[in-house]
Amino acid sequence: MVYKFISKYVNAISEVYFALDKILKADNQVIKLPSEVSIFSDKLNEIKSDYIVAKKEQQESEDKKNDLIMYMAHDLKNPLTSIIGYLTLLNDEKNIRKKTQDKYIKIALDKALRVEELTNQFFDITRYNLHSMPLNKTDINLSYLLKQLDDEYYPIYKKHQLKSKLSVLDKVIFNADGDKLARAFDNLLKNAINYSIKNTTIYISLLEKDDKILISFKNKGEKIPEYKLNKIFEKFYRGDDSRKSSTGGAGLGLAITKEIIELHNGAITVKNDDEFIEFNIEFKKYVLKSIKS
After folding, report:
1. Span 49-78, average pLDDT
2. Partners of 140 in beta bridges
């Protein structure tokens, strides 16, 4: 009787051991165990389900990444072809008019800057997947950071026929990584510029409400479909189906922005009505010190 009792449970444990191999099989087969160890069945099936979902998400991410590398390689080829073409004309035509020469140089420079931008996006893809971003925190003035960013973008506003309206507190001291936050805000502002309707205003605000600090970037643009809005923070997702070479990015800007905000114990959300697209950032007040003007 003792032998039968022990054998029964040894066999049941062996079933659990062999069931572990089934976890790594990406199929819909449910793991079933003897009644003596049935308590493990639900847990093993849960682990298997999580594994299948994670594996699927990883594959989808890799597919998106590979597609983007292909798209960006194509986008790199176009400006490089133009650069070579215009520099060849400048080299071959010795008696070219000054006005035409300046035009060709300007086009080649614009295309070269686009190549630099795309190259930086390639580095972003690599960095985003290799490791999470470390933070180097110091006390920074959030108000000054936003004012500085807004000033730097003045020529770009003008080029895109846009204006900005900045509404911030006089001074908000935040213990954070200034470079990382500047990058997050820069991504949001670039997004607002690229998708704003001409002759409209981009609104940037920083305020306190209850126990929170709120930052928002709001622009007037075409309504974003709900299915795109739900994916807007996903890495490698690009909402611009046409992939315009002038605005097309790696699909990492908003994903990196979200990661930076969350690394600072904050949250970012987006909302869109028939008129405005608005990104809202929220930090808990207890990690911030603010002084009103």
Report:
1. 74
2. 174
Task: Tell me what pLDDT residue 5 has.
Answer: 46
251: which residues sit within 8 A by CB, 6+ positions away?
Answer: 64, 68, 234, 235, 236, 237, 238
pLDDT at 173: 84
Rounded to a whole number of angstroms, the CA Rg of the chain reads 27
Structure-token pair, residue 193: 């510029």
Please give the Cα distance from 193 to 69 (Å, whole number). 24
For residue 20, CA distances in Å to 12, 13, 54 come to: 13, 11, 17
Distance between CA 225 and CA 239 in Å, rounded? Answer: 10
DSSP letters along 50-100, please? HHHHHHHHHHHHHHHHHHHHHHHHHHHHHHHHHHHHHHHHHHH-TT--HHH
Domain interval for residue 88: 1-131
Tens-digit pLDDT profile for residues 62-76: 776 676 666 666 667
Total structural domains within the chain: 2
Instruction: Identify the domain boundary among 131, 156, 182.
Output: 131
Query: How far from the centroid of its chain's Cα atoms is residue 176's Cα?
Result: 19
CATH number of the domain encompassing residue 167: 3.30.565.10
Q: Is the pLDDT of residue 14 over 70?
A: no
Bridge partners, 289 (sequence order): 173
Tokens of 30: 């449910």
Confidence of residue 58 (pLDDT cuts 50, 70, 90): confident
123 plus 193 within the same structural domain: no
Of the residues 131, 165, 180, the one at which a domain ends = 131
pTM of model > 0.85? no
Is pLDDT of 290 > 50? no
DSSP H or E run through 220: strand 212-220
Task: Say whether both 145 and 99 belong to one domain.
Answer: no
Q: What per-residue string of b and e applies to 138-151 under the rule 16 or more CB within 10 Å gives b? A: eebbbbebbeebbe
